Inverse folding.
């Protein structure tokens, strides 16, 4: 079965009347890294909360590996590890105690060798006897990761895993997430950093106001919605876009010093050749040119704004 | 049944207790010793016997109950309130543990601590007063049942409370008065007739009376009634906890 998590018609309205999710459908495939992108308050954390059992759904169903998350919670929760957004730890516990606690809580017998491996992988082994309150923020985040991995989950939820984390640790995290995926763990991460989704994800879902706006393979998404721009830096500034070039929909920017041509990178005929020839014919000279692809960020901003 | 889960919660709670051992053990022992010095030795020496028992010995079951109730409630309420406060409760909510297992872990640990403490107070009392226990097994049964029941109540308070002051208010405003007025330091029949009737609506009366019976074979109300009241109260607490988890009240939106 390709789908590991299957969400159907999921809605959540909090007691305050706030509707966090509106009839949401989504499938998560086995073994993928799925990135859930969305602005604050879009419903990302609520969605994760329902799958993990922290929030009760108002209507709709979620199944994990064929088991309903409400009716058959033991089967589903055993498979899931969660690293929440907030750094919530028992400050007075040692790293060793808290990770072993998590393992037991999720119904697994003690296994010191395995916990040692988790701690070593996360560079926490030297800190195992330290109390959590004595650790740095980055270390605490690793502890939370270790807790989530302590019971060997098949699915790992990372809610904003690299928020407030320095660049080096972020790279480490990414590295580790990839390793986990290679071992067969399915990973769902939410993020504000588009760069992160772009870097990590196999598929991307964009959520806004409790609705999934789209779900797409990352590569397909980027090429489908991706536009390219060609910027020509002119020798001499222009006042207007020259006549006869209207069909190219050019934009004059940078006080008339640059001409920007936007085209669809997927098209066979991009029109660049024609444009350059036409410019040459009119004697418009340029000193430099560069082309750029729109990033996921542009795509994202356009989509969310479009709502 | 997630045995490992229950054991993890239980161990975690016990470890918390041992970390603050001085505060957890020494302070109740000191306060109980003070009660004995004041009421047992100083005042008790001038008092006659109550129901054929010397006053110093008479107050022992009441004092144990006093500590048992307040410790059960404060241990259990703090145990569940703190993860709520720090946010670490996410892990318990997302874990494959049932309501019963969560309660067994938290309440089991809180009740264990209270029972140990109760026994410790009994040992301390031995230094001041010579007493005997007529029905040791019943004494233990009352101790354990009361500890469990009031740990359940504490658990409910811990979930209900959304601030530290609320955590304190029930033990302070309700439990302490009820135990003081429930015959810790006197027999109910020492009260004027009207107050004897009123005292019977106080649940602590039944606890203390039953517990005292297991020591000295004398009681204010029948032992069966005492046991029935504890059972009733325990069922009530279990019902409320079942409802809490069923509806997610204050813990699972």
């Amino acid at each position: 079965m390709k789908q590991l998590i299957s969400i159907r018609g999921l809605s959540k309205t909090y007691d305050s009347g706030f509707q966090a999710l509106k009839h949401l459908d989504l499938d998560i495939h086995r073994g993928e890294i799925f990135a859930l992108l969305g602005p604050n308050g879009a419903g990302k954390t609520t969605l994760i909360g329902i799958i993990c059992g922290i929030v009760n759904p108002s209507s709709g169903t979620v199944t994990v590996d064929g088991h309903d998350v409400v009716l058959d919670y033991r089967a589903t929760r055993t498979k899931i590890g969660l690293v929440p957004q907030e750094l919530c730890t028992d400050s007075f516990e040692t790293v060793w105690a808290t990770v072993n606690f998590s393992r037991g809580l999720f119904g697994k017998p003690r296994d010191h060798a395995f916990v040692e491996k988790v701690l070593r992988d996360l560079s926490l082994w030297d800190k195992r006897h330290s109390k959590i309150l004595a650790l740095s923020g980055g270390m605490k985040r690793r502890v939370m990761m270790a807790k989530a991995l302590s019971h060997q989950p098949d699915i790992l939820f990372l809610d904003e895993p690299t928020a407030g984390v320095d660049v080096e640790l972020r790279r480490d995290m990414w590295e580790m997430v990839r390793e986990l995926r290679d071992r067969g763990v399915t990973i769902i991460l939410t993020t504000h950093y588009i760069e992160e989704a772009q870097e990590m994800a196999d598929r991307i879902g964009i959520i806004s106001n409790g609705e999934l706006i789209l779900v797409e393979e990352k590569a397909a998404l980027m090429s489908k919605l991706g536009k390219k721009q060609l910027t020509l830096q002119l020798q001499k500034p222009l006042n207007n876009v020259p006549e006869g070039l209207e069909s190219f929909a050019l934009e004059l920017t940078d006080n008339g010093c640059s001409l920007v041509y936007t085209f669809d990178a997927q098209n066979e005929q991009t029109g660049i050749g024609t444009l350059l020839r036409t410019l040459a014919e009119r004697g418009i000279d340029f000193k430099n040119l560069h082309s750029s692809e729109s990033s996921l960020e542009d795509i994202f901003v356009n989509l969310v704004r479009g709502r | 049944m997630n045995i490992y889960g229950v054991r993890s919660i239980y161990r975690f709670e016990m470890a918390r207790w041992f970390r603050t051992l001085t505060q957890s053990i020494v302070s109740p022992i000191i306060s109980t010793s003070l009660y004995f010095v004041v009421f047992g030795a100083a005042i008790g020496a001038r008092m006659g016997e109550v129901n054929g028992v010397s006053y110093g010995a008479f107050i022992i079951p009441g004092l144990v109950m006093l500590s048992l109730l307040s410790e059960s409630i404060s241990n259990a309420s703090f145990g569940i309130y703190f993860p709520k406060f720090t946010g670490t409760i996410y892990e318990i909510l997302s874990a494959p543990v049932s309501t019963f297992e969560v309660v067994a872990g938290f309440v089991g640990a809180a009740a264990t601590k209270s029972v140990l403490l109760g026994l410790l107070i009994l040992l301390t009392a031995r230094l001041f007063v010579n007493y005997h226990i007529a029905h040791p097994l019943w004494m233990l049964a009352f101790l354990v049942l009361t500890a469990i029941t009031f740990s359940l109540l504490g658990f409910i308070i811990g979930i209900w409370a959304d601030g530290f002051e609320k955590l304190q208010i029930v033990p302070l405003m309700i439990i302490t008065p009820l135990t003081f007025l429930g015959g810790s330091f006197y027999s109910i029949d020492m009260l004027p007739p009207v107050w004897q009737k009123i005292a019977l609506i106080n649940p602590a009366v039944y606890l203390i009376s039953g517990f005292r019976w297991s020591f000295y074979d004398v009681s204010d109300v029948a032992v069966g009634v005492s046991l029935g009241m504890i059972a009733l109260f325990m069922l009530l607490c279990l019902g409320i906890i079942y409802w809490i988890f069923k509806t997610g009240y204050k813990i699972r939106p």
Q: What stands out?
A: Residues 227-305 of chain A form a domain with the Alpha-Beta Plaits fold (CATH 3.30.70). Chain A has two domains: 3-223, 227-305. The interface with chain B takes residues 14-15, 52-56, 73-75, 77-78, 80, 82, 84, 86, 88-93, 97, 100-109, 147 of chain A (CB under 8 Å). Residues 173 and 237 of chain A are 47 Å apart (CA to CA).
